[in-house]
Design brief:
Layout: E1 9-16, H1 19-25, H2 27-30, E2 36-43, E3 61-69, H3 79-95, E4 100-102, E5 106-109, E6 112-124, E7 127-137, H4 156-160, H5 166-185, H6 189-199, E8 207-212, E9 215-224, E10 230-234, E11 239-242, E12 246-247
Parallel strand pairs: 1-2
Antiparallel strand pairs: 2-3, 3-7, 4-5, 5-6, 6-7, 8-9, 8-12, 9-10, 10-11
Helix pairs in contact: 3-5, 3-6
Length: about 260
């Protein structure tokens, strides 16, 4: 895999509240530099999906936000899944392990969460500026996570027993996201969805608990729809498509 960070301009911070917040708070100054990759050695208030915090131990992980204008707005619905595919494939190429995509864009291995992605959009006039915040646990040991996360969070070091160069990971991630945006610009939606289905196949036909707009829904994961939505079969046999929500862990085998 190429490791050039092009086409992103690079801004690296020693410490910040969160890389995505830094972009939003300084957009007037940073907009001229788009597409931009903002990274940090540590975050004091990193965030994941549903407003949850992201543990950002200094120097042990990748804490990055990519900010850009999407070349074709038709790629917007697939941006979240495409970003997850890009991260999973980048990690596989880097360390030689297989990863699982938990819809829409959590990355797991060994039953633990290794990476999370938060996509946000900012409308400015007729322009949509996309922010893709990515956190990857690289060299954390179990004690580097808060006690409440140690059963659910993992790292590349825990997977392999090796330390991994964070700077190299940052370059690989930039290259992977650049390739991801090119795929979206070329409207390669079938290829993106095909790879997402492969990465999430371990969930197929398994019972899941799904949280959607305050509701808890139990059903069978039936894969991904043609537009990237989650297909869920409820107890009454009806199959529905969801475009937001979250799969709970643990996922149980179907009885």
């Amino acid at each position: 895999m190429p490791t050039s960070p092009e086409p992103f301009r690079v801004l690296h911070l020693g410490r910040c509240r969160s890389t995505s917040d830094h972009v939003k708070e300084n957009l007037a100054r940073l907009e001229k530099d788009l597409p931009l990759m903002v990274s940090a050695d540590s975050q004091t208030d990193g965030r994941g999906r549903e407003g949850r915090g992201w543990s950002s131990a200094p120097g042990l992980g990748l804490y990055v936000t990519f900010a850009f204008r999407l070349a074709d707005a038709r790629g917007l619905p697939l941006l979240s899944i495409a970003s997850g595919v890009a991260v999973a494939d980048m990690l596989h190429a880097w360390i030689g392990r297989q990863f699982t995509l938990k819809w829409p864009n959590d990355i797991l291995a060994g039953g633990k969460k290794i990476a999370g992605i938060l996509c946000e959009n900012m409308v400015k006039g007729d322009t949509i500026i996309c922010l893709v915040g990515i956190g990857i646990n690289v060299n954390q040991a179990p004690e580097d996570f808060p006690p409440e996360l140690r059963q659910r969070a993992g790292s590349l070091r825990q997977l392999t027993g090796l330390d991994w160069p964070v700077n190299e990971g940052r370059e690989r991630l930039a290259a992977a996201m650049a390739a991801c945006l090119e795929e979206l610009a070329l409207a390669h939606s079938a290829e993106i969805l095909g790879r997402a289905r492969q990465l999430s196949r371990s969930y197929l036909e398994r019972e899941i608990t799904f949280h959607h707009q305050g509701q808890v829904i139990h059903g069978i994961f039936c894969g991904l729809a043609a537009d990237g939505g989650l297909l869920l079969k409820s107890a009454d046999g009806e199959e529905k498509v969801f475009y937001s929500g979250e799969i709970s862990d643990p996922v149980r085998f179907r009885p």
